[in-house]
Amino acid sequence: MTVFALLASVLLAAGPTVTLDPQSASVTTGQVVSFESVITNPGPGPTQKLVAHLNVAALDGHYVDLEDWSGDVTKVVEPMPAGKQTTIEWEVQAVNSGEFALYVSLIPTGGRGTVIAGQPMYVTVAARHKLNSGGVLPVALAVPGFWAAVTAVAALRYRRTR
Amino acid sequence: MSRWPVVAGQETRDLWVGRGPALMFGYAVLLSAITYLAATNRGLNFLEQREAVNLVLQVAMTVGVLVTLLVSADTISGERERGTLESLLLTPVGRRSIAIGKLLGALSLWLGCVVVSLPYLWVIGRSVAAVRPAVLIVLLAGTLVTVAVAGLGLVISGLSSSNRVSLAVSLLVLLVLFAPTQLPGMAKSWVGDLLIRVNPLGSTMEFASRVILSRHDWRNELDYLVAPAVLAVIVAVVIVVTGNRLVRLG
Prior knowledge:
The structure holds two protein chains of two kinds. Chain A is α+β, with helices and mostly antiparallel strands. Chain A contains three helices and nine strands. In chain A, strands 2, 4, 5, 7, 8 and 9 form a six-stranded mixed β-sheet that branches. Chain B is mainly alpha-helical. Chain B has helices at residues 4-17, 20-43, 49-72, 75-82, 85-89, 95-125, 131-159, 163-178, 190-198, 200-212, 226-246. In chain B, helix 3 (49-72) packs antiparallel against helix 8. The mean pLDDT of chain B is 89. Chain A binds chain B through residues 29-30, 68, 93, 95, 130, 133-137, 139-144, 146-148, 150-151, 154, 157-158, and chain B through 16-18, 20-22, 24-25, 27-29, 31-33, 35-36, 39-40, 42-46, 116, 119-120, 122-124, 127.
C-alpha cells in the first residue's frame, strides 16, 4: 500500500471526536454537575447529522436510572464542516452516591456509521443526608408531638373520671 | 323537635375524649413520614415539586376518609354489640336523629384530619404556591367524598349483623373504590375516564391531580366532583328516610 493510500484510508476513517470538560468532578448527593462536551470533526469532509446521547454508568456495576440524573440527555448535532467543532452543555444532578463515569456517545442518524464514545468524565459522589430537607422536619416532629400530648392528657382525664 | 344536635354533640365529645386524639396522633405520624419522604425525594429530584404536594394531599385525604369510615362503620353496630344502644333508644331521641347525630359525630374526625393536614400542606406546598389550591381541595373535594363514604359506612353499620361484618364490608367497599385509582393511565381512554368519573374516590383524586399537577383552574374541573356529590346526596336521603330501620337492636 502506498503512503498516499494509507494516509487516505486513515483520514477517511476519521470520524468526529468528543471530549468532556472537565474530565473529573467530586460532589455530594443532590448537587448539580455542569460540564460540556466538545465535538470535533477532524475529517476531510462534513459529518452527517448526529445525535449526542449522555450516559451515566456506575463503576461498581449497579444500575443507574438515567432519568433520575437528568431529563435532558439527548441533543442533535447538525452536520459540521471539516475541521469545525461544536460545544454542548450538559447538566446532571447526582442523585446516587458512589463512583460514576459520564460519557457522551455520538450516534449517526444516516443509517450508516458506528457509534462513537468519548473519554468519560469520572465523578465521585459522596453521600450526604440532609436531615431537614425542605424545612419539613420541625412540622414532622411538632404535629405528632402535639397530638401525643393531647392523647396523654385525654387518657389521664378519662382515668380520673372513671 | 329534632334532637340530632344533642346526639352529634355527645358523639363528638365521646369521640374526642376517647379514641379521637389517638387516631389523630397516628394520622399525624403517617403524614409526617410521607411528607418527610416526599420532601427528601424532592430534594433529590426523584419527585417534582408539585408531585410531592399531590402525594401528600392524596395520602391526607385517603387516610382521612379511611379513619372517618372506620368510626362511622362502628357507630351503630358497635353500640349494638357493646349493649349501649338499648339505653340510647330509651331516650326521647328519634332513631333518625340518632343516625344523623352519629354521622355528624364521625365527621368531626374528618374536621380533625383537615386541621392536622394543614401544616403539612403548607410546608410542602409553599415553594410552588400550591398551598391554597391544596387546602381548597381538602375542604371541598375531601369533605364531599368523606361525607359520602362515612354515610355509606353508617348505613352498612346499621344493616350489619355484627360489628366485625360492618368493618369488613366498609373496608372492602373502600378498597374497591381505591384500587382503580392505582392503575396507571386510566384517564387516557374513554372507558378509563368513565370509570374514574363514576368512582367517588377516583374522581376526587383525579380532581386533585388536575388542579395541583396540571394546574387547571378548579372551577373548570368541578364535573369530577359529581360522583362524590351524588353519592353523598343518595346516602343522606337513605339515612333520613330509613333512619328508623338502621338504628335497631337486632
